[in-house]
Amino acid sequence: MSGREVCAILAAHGFEQVRQRGSHIVMQMRLPDTTITVPVPDHAELRRGTLMAIIRQSRLPRTEFEG
Question: Into which CATH architecture does domain 3-65 fall?
Answer without folding.
Answer: 2-Layer Sandwich (3.30)
